[in-house]
Amino acid sequence: MPMHRARQDHHPFPPRAGPPFLSSGAQLPVSPWHSLAALLVLAAALLGCGGDSGIGPDPGNGTDPPPGRTIKEDPSFASDIQDIFDRRGCTASSCHGSFQEAGLDLRSGTSYGQLVNVSSTQTGILRVIPVNADGSYLIMKVEGRAAVGAQMPLGGTPLDNIDLTNLKNWINQGAKSN
């Protein structure tokens, strides 16, 4: 009975062309796991917006908020709401800063005009409807109940009760530009 030998040139995965620095035209085997790992690394990089700077605890999400952060009945857009966008990383260049994800720029000086009575590019629902926080797309996104896309801030922890309540109070008090 003849014995079969394993082929010496057999690879469990089909060879793929290697990078250009391999001069001999060598090929590298690529498994589905390598492809999956590369995809996961890319996804992690893209989901990085919305988080904090990575240094120390997130000041907007601990059980004990930093001093000075309180729920306000009538928050100011300029000092309270813009602070949420800035502190939570929403204004990062790769999110709603210079990249303007979903056509939305949340940087100071432009954010108010891009939010109040402006339709979302994803659904057509108004981003902020004065005196109607629950019907505003901004609140749907930060609460994770929007029909399209992920909960915001993307890649970060959800807003804590102080930030969420202040956003809702600002909208329900008329979404004033103050």
Structural commentary:
This protein is mainly alpha-helical and 178 residues long. The chain has a domain at 77-172. 28% of the residues lie in helices and 3% in strands. It has helices at 32-46, 77-87, 111-115, 137-143, 161-172; strands at residues 15-17, 27-29. α2 (77-87) packs antiparallel against α5 (161-172). Mean pLDDT is 75; it is low at 18-23 and 37-62.
Overall average residue pLDDT: 75
Taking the alpha carbons of the first and last residues, their distance comes to 90 Å
Helix/strand/pairing class, anyone? mainly alpha
Series of secondary-structure elements, N-terminal to C-terminal? EEHHHHH
Largest pleated sheet: 2 strands, antiparallel
Give the radius of gyration: 24 Å
Quick one: how many beta strands?
A: 2
Strand sequence of the main sheet, in spatial order?
A: 1-2
Helix content: 25-40%
This entry's quaternary arrangement is single chain
Summarize this structure as a short list of keywords or feature phrases.
mainly alpha; single chain; two-stranded antiparallel sheet
Task: Summarize the SSE layout with pairings.
Blueprint: E1 15-17, E2 27-29, H1 32-46, H2 77-87, H3 111-115, H4 137-143, H5 161-172
Antiparallel strand pairs: 1-2
Helix pairs in contact: 2-5
In short:
This protein is mainly α. The chain contains 5 helices and 2 strands; from the N terminus they run ββααααα.
